[in-house]
Write a structure and sequence with these properties.
Layout (H helix, E strand, L loop, with lengths): L10 H13 L14 H11 L12 E5 L1 H15 L2 H4 L17 H16 L6 H9 L9 E8 L4 H19 L4 E5 L6 H8 L5 E10 L17 H4 L12
Antiparallel strand pairs: 1-2, 2-4, 3-4
Length: 246
């Protein structure tokens, strides 16, 4: 792709298409069994590689799982998840979430959780069904493609910022092909076992997993639409010259 080429669409249509791809990206938790052609996966990653990164470091590495390889990994991780004696002491390679939740993040976390459980008819306190629903993460919500993203352990926090832009590009490029995704931090707890199963070098750290496929729009959980704050709630414009006294 020529990175300086003219837009393929007129200004209005271009804006609409780009905005649509960003706004319709959501975490999809049920997929059709329809396979995703390898050339589509390669095209998504080939587009995402143009994401910004400090000093052009490009810190990303991607592991793509399909077919028996995905099934084997899912079965191994699910078995660990179902055995508290083996999984209880496992820890993530880095802190994704705050150690102590506080407002407004605590309320947002609770709302998305209970909105999802409400759609699925999972009552508060039903730990067995909660565990089963959470366990669907490890089957990639039945998506035909599972992705794992790793980064060099020696890199610093800035590379995780770069990685976030790369992950967003993957998800937006997927939308451009009528595909959906679900980025998943749930796999982080099992990073050592995943590294062993996929023979990931010790110098690489798991950043997250991701499901990729065609959404099952008949699944009730895919009707979930999370609320977002308006731009005015998190934006401050600075456009007045500071007054000075004579």
């Amino acid at each position: 792709m020529n990175r300086t080429m003219a837009p393929p669409l007129g200004a209005d249509m271009l804006r609409t298409v780009v905005d649509w791809a960003i706004a319709t990206r959501r975490s999809v938790r049920a997929y059709l069994p329809e396979p995703v052609p390898r050339e589509e996966i390669e095209a998504i990653l080939s587009t995402a590689r143009y994401s910004a990164s400090g000093m052009n470091m490009q810190p990303w590495h991607v592991h793509v799982l399909t077919g028996p390889a995905k099934a084997r990994l899912s079965a191994a991780v699910a078995a660990l998840d179902d055995d508290p004696g083996r999984s209880g002491g496992l820890r993530e390679p880095y802190d994704y979430y705050p150690r102590e939740w506080f407002s407004p993040y605590l309320e947002r976390r609770r709302k998305v959780g209970w909105d999802l459980y409400g759609l699925l008819g999972i009552a508060k306190g039903d730990k067995q069904r909660m565990h089963m629903q959470h366990g669907r993460n490890y089957r990639f919500f039945d998506a035909p493609v599972g992705l794992f993203f790793t980064v060099d352990r020696e890199l610093q926090e800035g590379s995780l910022l770069d990685y976030g832009m790369f992950l967003q590009s993957v998800m937006v490029a997927a939308r451009g092909r009528n595909l959906h995704t679900c980025p998943q931090a749930a796999f982080l707890k099992f990073h050592r076992q995943i590294a062993e199963l996929l023979e990931i070098p010790a110098g690489q750290m798991l950043v997250c997993g991701m499901s990729l496929g065609y959404a099952d729009e008949s699944a009730i959980e895919n009707s979930l639409s999370t609320e977002r704050e308006p731009a005015s709630a998190f934006t401050t414009f600075h456009n007045n010259a500071k007054e000075t006294k004579a």
